[in-house]
Design a protein that fits this description.
The protein is of the alpha/beta class. The chain is built from 13 helices and 9 strands. The longest helix is centred in the last third of the chain and has 15 residues.
């Protein structure tokens, strides 16, 4: 199959699961599949970084695993941990019965997302979400495991990667990632889409919405984003507001409706003040 045909196939598969990709996203996914490299995705919150990984898994027919990183996340929470209660109960039964039981076998180990993704027999997608929230030691461990395609668990052994795994890492740039991470990954920055693409995205989520209302909603959201608000409305907020307007039976955005439903779009008091002037400029209906 020619590269252009593979790109068309990826595009069609993503659109089939409700994701509208830009050209840069298509090229990056194609290269990740061809080169077997992880994808580092950066961009503002609410631009669909996590959604890209989820929809890629769905479009490609792969099983999906997710590591949600946070400050203080540990090896055990990423790979797995011993079920100490089960081990103690087994040891107590062995003591009573006089038998012997190996409590350091896989039966007593609780597998977490990284190990589960590694030993899964089917092609998989692994999302390491918000890796910038984890510390550098965890980041280094993840790189080593993915690079060597092995995970070693003390008292249990070494697990080899058993499938063709596709890896996504997302970051909100809370801290600088290691150079080694960036060197090993393909890179893509996802920003808020231009109005035309956002309208296309919104229509995939709310296909019954009138075209004029979709356009009016998207354009108004874009005007809000340009006001320098602290929390720019996400694409999800655009979809939610459109659904809100439709639920209220509105054919266009009037001042009263905007004032009453502003909480769907704006998430803090300071931003509400910045948007108030924009809302007041709307004609009453």
């Amino acid at each position: 199959m020619k590269p252009s045909e593979k790109l068309d196939e990826i595009d069609s598969s993503l659109r089939g699961v409700g994701y509208v990709p830009g050209r840069e996203i298509l090229i990056t996914l194609f290269l990740a599949l061809e080169l077997g490299k992880p994808i580092l995705v950066e961009g503002p919150p609410g631009t669909g970084k996590t959604m890209l990984a989820r929809k890629a898994a769905e479009a490609l027919g792969r099983e999906f695993f997710r590591i949600q990183c946070y400050e203080g996340i540990t090896f055990e929470q990423i790979v797995g941990e011993w079920n100490y209660q089960k081990q103690l109960l087994s040891l107590e039964r062995s003591r009573i019965s006089g038998s012997q039981e190996d409590v350091f076998s896989e039966e007593y180990f609780i597998k977490r997302p990284l190990l589960s993704a590694f030993i899964n027999e089917k092609p998989s997608v692994l999302l390491i979400d918000e890796i910038d929230k984890a510390d550098e030691e965890v980041e280094s461990f993840l790189l080593q495991a993915l690079g060597e395609k092995q995970i070693t668990v003390n008292d249990l052994g070494t697990f080899d990667l058993r499938n063709d795994i596709m890896v996504f890492l997302t970051s909100n740039s809370q801290r600088n990632l290691l150079d080694e991470t960036r060197d090993r990954c393909l890179y893509i920055h996802i920003d808020y889409p231009d109005p035309e693409r956002e309208m296309e995205i919104v229509r995939t989520h709310v296909p019954s919405a009138p075209a004029a209302l979709v356009q009016e909603t998207v354009m108004f959201i874009n005007r809000i984003r340009e006001l320098g608000v602290i929390k720019k409305p996400s694409i999800r907020a655009t979809v939610d507001w459109l659904r809100t307007l439709m639920a209220l039976g509105k054919e266009h955005i009037d001042r009263e409706t905007a004032e009453e439903t502003l909480g769907v779009v704006i998430k803090n008091r300071a931003d509400e003040g910045k948007v108030r002037g924009l809302v007041e400029s709307l004609d009453e209906s």
